[in-house]
Design a protein that fits this description.
About 5% of the residues lie in helices and about 35% in strands. By secondary structure, the protein is mainly β. The protein has eight domains: about 325 residues, Rossmann fold, CATH 3.40.50; about 80 residues, Immunoglobulin-like (Sandwich); about 100 residues, Carboxypeptidase-like, regulatory domain (Immunoglobulin-like, Sandwich), CATH 2.60.40; about 170 residues, Jelly Rolls; about 90 residues, Sandwich (Immunoglobulin-like), CATH 2.60.40; about 110 residues, Immunoglobulins (Immunoglobulin-like); about 260 residues, Neuraminidase (6 Propeller); about 90 residues, Sandwich (Immunoglobulin-like). A hairpin with an 8-residue loop joins strand 33 and strand 34. Helix 6 runs parallel beside helix 8.
């Protein structure tokens, strides 16, 4: 049942069973990196880990849950990721056995487990926490199904028994993941089986990386869990695991962890000494013994010796075959999937049988809870080891093996063994501390002052040790087993005190106070400098072994440092550069045992070890010579082949042709290869270029070089050497002017970059020659450049360092990301950075090397700040401290809102003053947004009344074959056409088909027309562009894009269409950007984006186009967090704060003066999201907003009528949807829109509201175009007829102001009510600005009145979406109407209303709805009053 190992690249970490560890030492295996036979199949839903996982191995009866293997992104992550250990029972073909209605008959029941382990009836009031990764929406309902089937008491959130939180303790749940939901269901059901009365706390980590899972453990403890189960791990272990041990260090809480499912291989966090490592057994009924059950070690349960975790105190005296390190397991429980428990999970659509140590860990966690609360300040992992009655309290498992180690680490036996530890619980007595008492007291100094952070260790005669740390008042408590102890109190900087007279009786408290004497200290101080020639002060980091207060940093401008250390000991200091790269760290031993303690430097006190000192000089890495201010200095002869051509050598070099074929070294690169060092001039012999039948035996021979004064000569050259069988390349040396030769280097295939060959035999020789000898026949090639025959040393170059801090001139805040550039040499620049580890140096710190000394100009820049030109005077071999400030305009607005009340037809004017209290001029751009309309006497409605929501049930994927529009699919057992007709006149309307089927197209709306560019047919990218004119209902071809682009973004800024990014057919997303002039019909190339992006989000705000996230490669992974904005006025891209998470296929738009983005997917983790974020230009980051109702990716997006709309996409990972939603920024909420006619994803969307193209599944592109009318007021491009500004673009000088008149004209609207508009305010400053809210209250003229009513069915239920036609000036005699009529639609309550001039009397009202009998009434409007006309429409 062993599995093929999975390896990853050199930068990563490894997952493999111990049985194959010897294979891992074989280099060829690491290169081959075979795919695992148990790799997950492609998930059926948009989740990272599929529900069914993969087989454990050929012919096995296990199947791993999807979370039991890692995605490629998880394997390649810098932070390690854990996998779960859930294994399902499979049939002979390796398929998971799932039963829809009842559990498998082979599964153990809760009663079985309770009987097998002789468990008591208890646990009431105890809380067991389950820590797992990702979301599980149906956790509570699935748990209820399990518990109801087995007759266990209900455990619900309503009763307080069940609680689910995210890793921070809130309800911001992570993305759903079917694989991890299987693990979570197993854990919840396991605890329920052994402790039905326990409360359950589910803590969901955002991801399974160690940081997220560790934070979840901390949260579980903070929320009161007495036991925490962790059914995941990393096996084999990784060195960085110890950095995460603190997450599991919770004295007084039982933390259990699975040992794994790879046999005799230890895994973390089970190997943490703070954790109870739970191994696995096979538990079967056995009537032949008194227990009635038999257990043996499970063949795949984890065990072993940790390479990184130390041996804990409680394993002292235990023979583990692991003398210095932690050994696992501690105890065990049932784990074999063939004897596992039944699990109910919605994603499985039923029941399946699961095991693995993912079962044993929660079983034991539940048993700890049955045992009661742990003793405070003790580690429950130690309890079984210290149980005086272990023979009765534990079932010693003596049969079974999990590997071939040949010792106790993999073979079950009497007493402790690796697979099962000390055994399995028999009752819960072994899971308690037993008889114990308390040692308590206070730790103070000589003056009686409490000492916090002192360690008190109490050690029994058998070596058992207990530890506690004093609190802020110096108090400590140690819960210890009864007996005699030796206790020692210690604290850094103080002498230890030991008590040997401590005897603890059961249930008693023994007081033991300690008084510690402070040790005298010495001040160790000095300077850290460059030690390779410049001698300048260095900003350095100094760590001292045993020093608890963290790293000490030097002053970056002087190199000085100071640290106080207790006298009387030797200390090891480690000194490294904190900023300048390529310096070699140095260690120093500081001996403070001699001399007199005090404040004097140990150097002057004579206390330093001979040869050591507090001044440290750090050398640069001379082997690479890449440190700033250093370069290679050479003697002898260097040849760069510059100006050479053909096959003619120069400068005394010669070329030989021993083959006589004329096929020799050349200097014109006939094969067109890339040069070996970036320089186009180089020597080359290309056997392949000479062709089949060619033969080469040629040497490139140097002239004689005098190395009489060279002490350490070498031959160095840049090269590319591509080998081939029978091809030979050698570097030969002659020290006697060519009379004799010796080979000093034989080239081999794939050698490249710089090669340096020491030739000490040439030292002191006056006639040294070198030849490069090449023989081949139709083989490969050899390139040479920058050949050195002589010496090369790393030497300082002229110049000095400039460093300092850049701050905001207005606020004084440090600026991170500002650039300081030397005007004398623009290649010399520094970028300000944060300095979180050094509190003495503020953020905004920069450094640079200046090759110019004396008065030198510098340019300081940062996005949206005014460029600063200043000077400094760098000094050679020194550091010059130079701070800078950057100015910027800062906008003030004298009022956040304006309003006016006026009679319909009147106009009012208000004034808004924009000031600038900053230090630089600023530019303001104003834009309008429609905030909505509330008819007088009616509820608020969106800007344009939308149609009534009608949802087409397409929650699952509507799969279609590529290119076959109109294909039908089965949804919930019904056949549904992929293209449905318009549902009603007020819903989505079909628009003329696009000229070709397409998806991944970019769509933009301008001046009432719809522009579509690029996309793909599903098999080939498109360069076509077309425009749709609703007036003609026709598409017209535009000039083609300059290149085919699939998945670009497109948007209008002003009257110009801008297009950026997309896929062009290569492996990387494009950085290209273009502009289209509709008037001229031409395209122009723009500045490239900083990084490529496809299927990104796009928004237009403040005259800029924002591009958010996107795919970076053709596979989309990794998704980007990059956000950039394009300014057409400067043809420049500017980076803005990154998006909070990697995202592609997101939905973005501008609303309420912010960029709003929602949904999308992290392609690397296959994790869709429901999160919504907004960004206000100039803000330091993104703000979390209300989540979408479901996860959505690949939806079409638009920004209109003051909100952001999304249509279609993949919803909840279940398939393509036709849902439509709108984000209301004023109320921070999502509301439903009428569902679209066609279920599509990866289609384009734009204001209008239009959706163009897309796919109903896979790459089945369509030509469908659909529109939801009433969304033509584009955000950021809206022109509200009733709202006007005197100026929309203006400059405000520093210290000045501009007053802008704002007009509110009710003559442009038709109905009384409240009109809300927003004046978006965008600036070119780094600060956020808020919109100005404008409200126009319109009252009716005196002669106006209101006609209103409700339309219902025959049962009195309101009819939403009914039509009410109002015919004015109705003539009863002729049945004709006057010149104006109105058509209204009822709202969700069946209500309608209309204000009219009474001069329109009389009115004919006709109410109608499809499938119902229309009704007609005649009514009159009464001035200043409401006339009610209700209708009842019976079915036809």
């Amino acid at each position: 049942m062993r599995r093929t190992p999975r390896l990853r690249g050199p930068a990563g970490w490894l997952v493999a069973p111990l049985a194959v560890l010897t294979m891992l030492l074989t280099p060829v295996l690491a290169e081959a990196a075979p795919a695992p036979v148990h790799a997950d199949p492609p998930p059926t839903t948009a989740t990272a880990h599929g529900a069914n996982g993969g087989p454990l191995g050929a012919g096995t009866n296990y199947r791993t849950a999807g979370c039991n293997s890692l995605t490629a992104a998880e394997q390649n992550s810098a932070e390690p990721y854990a996998r779960c250990f859930a294994l399902g029972r499979a049939d002979a073909d390796g398929k998971l056995v799932v039963q829809p209605n009842v559990p498998p008959a082979t599964a153990l029941t809760p009663t079985d487990l309770q009987q097998a382990y002789d468990l008591p009836d208890g646990g009431a009031g105890m809380t067991v926490a389950i820590v797992d990764a990702y979301g599980y929406a149906t956790a509570e309902s699935d748990l209820a199904t399990f518990r109801e089937y087995y007759g266990l008491p209900a455990c619900t959130a309503a009763s307080g028994c069940f609680r689910k939180v995210d890793q921070r303790g809130g309800t911001d749940f992570p993305a759903e993941d079917t694989g991890w939901s299987i693990e979570t269901a197993l854990d919840l059901d396991a605890v329920s089986s052994v402790c039905p009365k326990c409360n359950l706390l589910l803590v969901e980590g955002d991801t399974p990386n160690l940081g997220d899972l560790g934070e979840a453990v901390d949260t579980a403890v903070q929320l009161g869990a007495q036991a925490v189960s962790n059914s995941y791990g990393i096996a084999p272990e990784v060195p960085q695991e110890t950095q995460y041990d603190a997450y599991y260090d919770h004295p007084g809480v039982a933390i259990t962890a699975s040992t794994g499912d790879t046999g005799n291989l230890a895994g973390w966090p089970a190997t943490s000494s703070h954790v109870t490592a739970v191994g696995g057994t096979k538990l079967v009924k056995d009537t032949g013994n008194a227990r009635g059950w038999a257990e043996s070690a499970w063949t795949d349960g984890g065990s072993g010796c940790s390479p990184y975790e130390p041996r804990p105190d409680f394993q002292q005296g235990i023979e583990t075959n692991c003398p210095d390190n932690r050994a696992v397991a501690d105890i065990a429980a049932d784990a074999d999937p063939s004897t596992g428990i039944a699990v109910y999970n919605t994603h499985l659509s039923g029941w399946a049988q699961y095991g693995g140590t993912s079962l044993s860990a929660p079983l034991v966690a539940g048993m700890y809870a049955l045992a009661g609360a742990a003793t405070p300040n003790t580690y429950p992992a130690s309890y079984p080891y210290r149980d005086a009655h272990a023979a009765q309290d534990l079932n010693d498992v003596t049969a079974g093996v999990n590997g071939s180690c040949g010792n106790v680490l993999c073979q079950a036996g009497t007493g402790w063994d690796g697979p099962t530890g000390l055994g399995t619980p028999h009752g819960v007595a072994a899971l308690t501390q037993g008889e114990h008492g308390t040692i308590s007291g206070t730790v103070t100094d000589d003056g009686g002052t409490a000492l916090a952070g002192a360690t008190v260790a109490a050690t029994a005669a058998d070596g058992t040790a207990y530890h506690a740390t004093s609190d802020a008042k110096g108090h400590y408590d140690l819960a210890v087993a009864t007996g005699s102890y030796r206790a020692t109190a210690s604290k850094y900087g103080y002498g230890d005190q030991t008590r040997t007279d401590l005897t603890v009786a059961a249930d008693t408290t023994l007081t033991a106070d300690f008084t510690l004497t402070k040790k005298p200290t010495d001040t160790v101080s000095g300077t850290v400098t460059d030690g390779s020639g410049h001698g300048w002060p260095l900003y350095a980091k100094i760590t001292v072994d045993g020093y608890p207060n963290g790293a000490v940093y030097t002053n970056p401008y002087t190199g000085k440092y100071s640290v106080e250390l207790p006298h009387g000991a030797s200390y090891r200091m480690h000194v490294s550069s904190a900023e300048l790269p390529d310096y070699v760290a140095q260690d120093r031993t500081v001996d403070l045992t001699g001399g007199t303690a005090g404040a004097a430097s140990p150097k002057t006190a004579g206390a330093l070890t001979a040869g050591s000192g507090q001044d440290v000089a750090l050398p640069v890495d001379t082997a690479q010579c890449t440190a700033v201010g250093y370069d290679w200095a050479t003697t002898g002869r260097t040849t760069g082949f510059t100006g050479w051509s053909g096959d003619t050598p120069q400068d005394g070099w010669t070329v030989t042709d021993a083959a006589g074929t004329g096929q020799t070294w050349r200097f014109d690169n006939p094969g067109g290869w890339a040069p070996p060092a970036g320089d186009a001039s180089f020597a080359d012999i290309d056997s392949n270029w000479f062709g089949e039948g060619g033969s080469q035996d040629s040497s490139l021979v140097s002239p004689a070089v005098d190395l009489s004064d060279a002490a350490n000569p070498e031959i160095g050259f840049d090269t590319v050497y591509i080998g081939f069988p029978d091809q030979v390349g050698t570097v030969d040396l002659s020290t006697d002017d060519g009379a004799t030769w010796s080979t000093v280097q034989t080239m081999s295939g794939g050698m490249g970059n710089r090669i340096d060959i020491p030739v000490p035999q040439a030292a002191g020789k006056s006639k040294v020659r070198v030849r490069f000898h090449f023989t081949a026949s139709w083989s490969r090639r050899w390139e040479l450049d920058n050949v050195l025959i002589g010496t090369r040393t790393c030497a300082p170059t002229t110049g000095g360092l400039v460093s300092g801090v850049v701050r905001d001139a207005n606020t004084g805040d440090p600026l991170v990301g500002a650039t300081v550039t030397s005007d004398a040499d623009p290649t010399r620049f520094g970028v300000t950075a944060a300095t979180p580890d050094d509190p003495a140096v503020p953020d905004g710190y920069y450094w640079l090397f200046s090759s110019h000394t004396g008065d030198t100009g510098f340019t300081v820049t940062d996005a949206r700040y005014a460029t600063r030109h200043a000077s400094a005077a760098p000094v050679g071999n020194a550091v010059v401290h130079r701070n800078f400030t950057l100015g910027a305009g800062h906008l003030t607005v004298d009022q956040a809102s304006v309003s006016a009340t006026e009679v319909l037809g009147a106009t009012a004017t208000r004034k808004v003053t924009f000031g600038n209290d900053g230090t630089a001029p600023l530019h303001v751009r104003l834009a309008e947004e429609d905030g909505g309309f509330t008819a007088m006497g009616a509820p608020h409605q969106d800007a344009t009344p939308g149609a009534v929501t009608r949802t087409v049930k397409t929650a699952t994927s509507l799969a279609a074959q590529p290119g076959k529009a109109g294909k039908t699919a089965t949804v919930d057992g019904h056949r549904v056409a992929l293209r449905q007709g318009a549902t009603a006149s007020d819903g989505w309307q079909q628009v003329t088909d696009y000229p070709t089927a397409l998806m991944d197209d970019a769509v933009a709306y301008h001046d009432g027309k719809v522009y579509v560019v690029g996309g793909t047919t599903g098999s080939s990218s498109l360069k076509s562009a077309n425009v749709y004119d609703p007036a003609t209902q026709a598409w017209t071809a535009l000039a083609d894009l300059p290149e085919a682009l699939n998945g670009p973004v497109a948007a209008f800024v002003g009257d110009t269409l801008y297009v950026a990014g997309g896929w062009t057919g290569g492996s990387q997303a494009s950085t290209h950007a273009y502009a289209y002039d509709p008037g001229a019909g031409t395209w122009a190339r723009l500045a490239d984006m900083p990084t490529g992006a496809a299927m990104a989000g796009v928004a237009v705000l403040g005259g800029r186009m924002y591009v958010i996230g996107g795919c970076t490669t053709s596979s989309c992974a990794p998704s980007s967090t990059s956000v950039v904005s394009y300014d057409p006025s400067s043809d420049a891209w500017t980076a803005v704060p990154d998006y909070p998470t990697p995202v592609a296929y997101g939905s973005c738009g501008a609303a309420s003066a912010e960029v709003v983005c929602a949904g999308g997917i992290d392609a690397s983790a296959s994790a869709p999201t429901a999160r919504t974020y907004s960004y206000s230009p100039g803000a330091s980051g993104w703000t979390r907003r209300s989540d979408l109702p479901t996860t959505v990716w690949g939806a079409s997006a638009a920004a209109a009528n003051g909100g952001v709309q999304i249509v279609g996409g993949i919803v909840d990972g279940k398939g393509v949807s036709n849902q439509a939603l709108e984000y209301d920024p004023q109320q921070d909420r999502w509301v439903a829109l009428p569902s679209a006619n066609n279920a599509q994803y990866r289609g384009g969307g734009a204001c209008g509201l239009y959706q163009v193209g897309g796919s109903a599944g896979s790459f089945g592109s369509t030509a469908f175009v659909q529109q939801l009318p009433g969304y033509g007021s584009c955000n950021g491009d809206a022109d509200l007829a009733w709202l006007g500004e005197g100026s929309v673009s203006f400059e405000v000088p520093a210290g000045g102001s501009v007053t802008v008149p704002v007009s509110l004209d009710s003559s442009t609207v038709a109905q009384p009510g409240d009109y809300l508009g927003l004046v978006d305010v965008a600036t070119d400053t780094p600060y956020a600005s808020s919109p100005v809210s404008v409200t126009m209250h319109v009252t009716p003229p005196k002669r106006w009145g209101k006609i209103a009513g409700t339309v219902t069915d025959e049962n009195g239920a309101p009819l939403a979406g009914a039509t009410v036609q109002v015919c004015t000036m109705y003539d009863r005699g002729t049945g004709t109407c006057g010149p104006q009529s109105f058509t209204l639609a009822t709202d969700g309550d069946g209500h309608y209303q209309l204000w009219l001039n009474k001069g329109f009397d009389p009115l004919e009202l006709i109410a109608a709805m499809a499938g119902r009998q229309p009704k007609m009434k005649v009514a009159r409007v009464t001035a200043g009053a409401t006339t009610t006309a209700d209708f009842v429409l019976p079915k036809i």
